[in-house]
Amino acid sequence: MVIDFDSFYNFPYEFDKIFSDVFNPHHQRRRKASYPPLNIVEDKNNIYVRAEVPGISIEDMEITITDKDLVLKGQRKLPEGRYFRQERPSGVFQRIVSINTTVDVAKVTASTKDGILNIVLPKSEASVPRKVGITVE
C-alpha cells in the first residue's frame, strides 16, 4: 500500500488552486488544450515546428496540413495497471496551428528523435520576401 502525504504538505497550494479554478474556470481548459507543447521558429526559407511527444509511437500520430493550418492528432495510450498517481496526460489530443504563410505542401517533412517531433514547413517561392529597387525619376 502506498500512502501519499504530498497532498497534505501542499494543502495551502491546493486550497488556493481550488479558489483560482472557481473564479477562473477557463484556466484548466486552456492548459488541456495546449498539448503537446510546441515551439515554432521561422527563418527566411522554412517554418520549424517542434512538439514534445515522449512515449507516443509514430503509428499513434497523424499530421495534416491544409492551406492555412497544421493539425497534429494523436493518442497517448495509458499502459495497463493500477495507478496510485497519474501526472502525465493520456488519451486523445489534437493541436491546430495557424500558418500565415503559404507553404510548399509537397516538401513538408517530419521526423522524431528523443520524444521531439520535428516538422519542417518550406515556404513557397511566392511567400519569400524580395527587395524591390527604387528608381529616381
Quick summary of this structure?
The protein is an alpha+beta fold. It contains three helices and seven strands, in the order αααβββββββ.
Could you characterize what this model shows?
The strands form 2 sheets. A 4-stranded antiparallel β-sheet has the order 1-2-7-6, with no helix packed on it. Strands 3-4-5 form a 3-stranded antiparallel β-sheet, with no helix packed on it. The protein has 3 helices and 7 strands; from the N terminus they run H-H-H-E-E-E-E-E-E-E. With 137 residues, it is an alpha+beta fold. It has helices spanning 6-9, 11-23, 26-33, and strands spanning 38-42, 46-52, 61-65, 69-76, 91-98, 109-113, 116-122.
Which labels suit this protein?
single chain, 137 residues, alpha+beta, Immunoglobulin-like, four-stranded antiparallel β-sheet, three-stranded antiparallel β-sheet, 3 helices, 7 strands, 33% strand, elongated
